[in-house]
Amino acid sequence: MLLQFTLPNVRTYFILMIVVVALAMPTCAAEKRYVLQLKEHNERALHINSHGRVTAEHILQTYQYFTMEGVNDVLSLDFKLTIYAADVDYYLCFHQGRLVGKRNATKDCHFKEGMINGYYHYTSYYKPKLRVGFKAKFKPVGLKDFAKPRVMDKAIFFFYRLGEEEIPETLANGSNSNSLKSYNQANSNNNNNNNNEVDLEQQQVILQRNRLQHRRLQPKKRQQQQQQKQQQQQQQHHRRRHRQRGTVRHHHDNATIMERRRRRRLERQQHKLQRELWEQKQREAGELERERERLEHLPKATSSASSSSSSSSTATSTALTATAASANIISQSGNIYGNV
C-alpha cells in the first residue's frame, strides 16, 4: 500500500531529502583552490616547496594553489580546516611552534579561519597563540618571535584569497608558468651556478693564500738548505781528514772520555780500600773492647767462687755442730732413762 500523505510522512520525506542533498553536495561540488596573497606585499604569496619548507615567494616567479578542507565532526559546532597544497602533497602545519609542511594532517595542521575587511587570517585550532604569518624578511613567524614586539610590529598575518579565475587578471602584465618543476629546476640551476661561482672564488682565495705562504716560507727554506749544505760539507771535510790519517776516531776512543773513565775507576778503588780499612779498624776495636770486658769480669768470678766456698764451709760446720749437739742431747736423754 502507498503511504498516505499525512503530516508525519511529509516531515520524514523532507528530512530524508535534506540528508541526501547534504551527503551529495560535498561529492558533487568542485573543490575551490586559492592563492594566499600577502596583504602588505601583494606581489608575494604563501608557498611550500618540495622539501616542506614554508616561504613567501614572488607570484611572478611561481604561485601555488591551496585547498581549504573542513575537518569538522558531526556533533561539533566549531569549524576547523586544513590548508593543503596538492602539487607538493603537503599540509600546512605547526611543528614545535614553526610553520612546516607535513605529508599527513595531524592536530597541528588544524586551523581556525577568520576574516577582517576582506582579508583572511589563520590561527592554530588547539594553540590559538600560534598564527600563520611572515616576518619582514618573508620568513615564517615562529613561537619565539611572538615575544618580540619589534618583530610583531612588522609581521604580516593577513592574506587575500585569489581564486583561479582571478589569477590571469593579476598576472596579465607578465607571463607565468604554474609548473613547480620548472621553478624548481630554475632554482636548482641558479643554485648550481652560484655554487660554481662560490667554488671558483674559494679556489682563487686558496691559491692566493698558498702563494703568500710560499713566499713567506721561501727565506726559511733557503736558510735551512744552506745550513744543511754547510753541515754536509763539514762532515765530508772531517771524513777526508780521517781518511788521510788512516785512522777513524770513534767516540769511545776520545782522550777526554778515557781520562774521565780512568779517574772514576781510581776513585772507586780508593773508596773501596778506605771502606775496607775502616771496617777492619771497627772490627779490631770491637775485639779489643770485648777482650777488655772479659778481663774485667774474671776477678769478680773468683771472689764469688771463694765466697760461695766459705759459705758452704760455714754451712757444713753449722750442720756438724747441730748434729753433735743433737747427738749429745740424745745421749743425755738415754742416760736419764737408764738411771730411772
Automatic annotation (TrEMBL):
Belongs to the heparin-binding growth factors family. GO terms for molecular function: growth factor activity. SUPFAM superfamilies: Cytokine (SSF50353). Residues 288-299 have a biased composition (Basic and acidic residues). The keyword Glycosyltransferase does not apply. Residues 214-223, 236-252 have a biased composition (Basic residues). It comes from Drosophila gunungcola (fruit fly). InterPro entries: Fibroblast_GF_fam, IL1/FGF. Residues 187-196, 224-235, 301-314 have a biased composition (Low complexity). This is Uncharacterized protein.
